[in-house]
Amino acid sequence: MDVTVVGLRVLRVVAERGTFTGAARELGYTQSAVSRQVAGLEQAVGARLFDRSPGGVRLTAAGRALLRHAVTALDALDAADRELHGADDDSGGVRLGHFPAAGPVLVARALATLGREHPRVRLTTREGTTPSLVRALRAGTLDVALLSSRPPHRSPDTDDPALHVEPLLEDRLVLAVRADGPLADRAAVTAQELADVTWIAGPSGTGDPLLGVWPGLPGRPRVHHAARDWLTKLHLVAAGAGVTTVPATLRSVTPPGIRLVTVTGLPEERRRVSLVRLPGPTTPPVDAVLHALRGHAADLAD
Known about the structure:
The structure is a single chain. By secondary structure, the protein is α/β, with parallel strands linked by helices. Helix content is 37%, strand content 24%. It has helices at 5-17, 20-27, 31-45, 61-84, 103-117, 130-139, 230-238, 284-301, and strands at residues 50-53, 56-59, 93-98, 122-127, 144-149, 164-178, 188-190, 198-201, 222-226, 244-247, 258-264, 270-277. The protein is globular, with a radius of gyration of 22 Å.
């Protein structure tokens, strides 16, 4: 195969971003330049690397195989570049991805623990949706990810090799209401009482546009406010703008003016938090991060 380093980098970024447009934005290229690089790679290897669809692109079996080798080659070239230019050794770096609600409690506490017990471990974090984090794992730009799933807790993707999924914590959804509002004087509210409330949910186009609305609620919910992050949603609740859902593990960092109550008359909404990574051996820095996350997950479960 006559492939270029630029072509392999484009392959990696397209696989991670899931669209040619996203890859072009990340790389500073035009979309047509990305398309030409992918076409050149496909010609060099003699196989289609991506399946195209209106919603984006997905690696084919040949694309997944080439990506695995591309990650190894690109990481080796990056290590050589650092060594030749006298840059700091990156062997202590760990890249962690997480869903948004894991940040303020689980990730923040793990960072504090690592700072005390493993100061040489350099942890970098980023939040994202499950599809984006899984693509980053496959592309080798994340070492481990914290993902949330609903029953029946299927694997986050079906690609090969199968991801290593370690259940970490069982959580449940609760309802956030204003502390002096009409729903705050009880420990639980019924589904009927939620029929006419105003909801604060995630914006459309995020893959789950009603994130923040109780799942399975009959009828069409009234969503008057959209916010991506949980903290904004909770402050909107405190301001009397509506109600929203949050994981129960956020109880310790809920801002003033909020009460968390359960919902009756609908199935309980359970969530599982899992550590997800590619199969294979781990490095001591990754082990330190995993150990810290496991410890704080156990504390939250108590």
